[in-house]
Design brief:
Strand content: 15-25%
Structural class: alpha/beta
Shape: globular
Distance between the termini: 36 Å
Radius of gyration: 19 Å
Number of strands: 14
Order of helices and strands: EHEHEHEEHEEEEEEEHHHEEHHH
Helix content: 25-40%
Length: 308
């Protein structure tokens, strides 16, 4: 399969060389590397230009919009059938591309997939790679607001009738799941082509859960989405932990925008004619107030007012 690798970047001059070098070292080299850059004056342009001799780079300049606009620019500009996404502060395993190509070649029903993401640490202009998983797995409590949409019956991780998500334990190296991870995911281009991501997330500041929206676009076109959880076969990246992170700093303002995206997902799914339930949605909103109530109450009021 022909491969387009996409990287969205903003203020990451410190990590870009590691990310691009890992793509240059792939056992199966991508046919193109699309770098969507929002200029910040940090020297990223020069770094990208320096890698044009090592990689088939296509540079796109983002002049307006948010993160999801950049993601849509990436997959809309891809020239090839398989579109891989990796964060600009991540390092890919040398078989990252090869393993995605193998999986999609062997699974024609797959529209999207995510591999495994470990923690890497950046210090003194060097990186240390670990076997510590970057994201903990959590399982939500049951209830009518956690029942899956019809399209996700039988899935281990799903989008529910409320627009919120649900997940149950599944003991398998490959599971059907809507829980794709933006730092390490791949899509069959035809599964997400013309998916209205930027329109759905035009009020969002951080694009939280945009991967689930893409997963639903893929699902209603007849494709399944998967999590690959065996390190022997899964595409692996290391997400570099650093104080410059723009999206992982804990704050009430961050929680406001994360919860706004949860609140807005119901209305986004209605755009795609999903069988969401307003009754389940109201229960989910009430249940979500048990933690971090102040920013979540404000985000809920804002989300209901603007309806995504």
């Amino acid at each position: 399969m022909d491969v387009s690798a996409v990287m969205v970047t903003f203020r990451r001059a410190w990590s870009l060389p590691f990310a691009l070098e890992s793509l240059a070292a792939q056992s199966h080299r991508p046919d193109e590397v699309i770098v969507v850059l929002k200029p910040s004056g940090d020297g990223s342009e020069e770094i990208i230009k320096n890698y044009e001799a090592k990689l088939p780079i296509k540079s796109l300049i983002q002049t307006k919009g948010n993160f999801t606009d950049a993601v849509e620019m990436g997959y809309s500009s891809a020239s090839h059938s398989l579109v891989l996404f990796m964060d600009d502060d991540a390092v890919a395993h040398k078989e990252w591309v090869e393993r995605y190509v193998r999986f999609f070649s062997e699974n024609e029903d797959a529209g999207g997939a995510s591999g495994m993401t470990y923690k890497g640490y950046f210090s003194n202009d060097d990186v240390k790679l670990t076997q510590i998983e970057a994201y903990s797995e959590t399982f939500a409590r049951g209830g009518p607001h956690r029942l899956p949409l019809k399209a996700y019956e039988g899935y281990c991780g799903w989008i529910s009738k409320s627009g919120f998500t649900g997940k149950k334990p599944c003991d398998s190296p490959i599971i059907r799941s809507a829980f794709l991870v933006g730092a390490n995911m791949a899509w069959r281009k035809e599964a997400i082509e013309r998916c209205p991501l930027s329109r759905a997330f035009h009020r969002s500041r951080i694009g939280f859960s945009n991967e689930y929206f893409l997963a639903y676009c893929s699902r209603i076109r007849g494709y399944n989405t998967y999590e690959l959880r065996d390190p022997n076969i899964a595409p692996i990246v290391w997400h570099l932990q650093h104080s410059d992170s723009l999206t992982r700093r804990p704050s009430s303002w961050k929680e406001f925008w994360i919860h706004y995206d949860r609140v807005a997902n119901y209305w986004r799914l209605k755009m795609l004619n999903a069988d969401v339930s307003f009754y389940a949605y109201l229960i989910a909103l009430a249940a979500s107030m048990r933690r971090k109530p102040l920013p979540r109450i404000l985000a809920t009021l804002y989300g209901l007012a603007v309806r995504a």
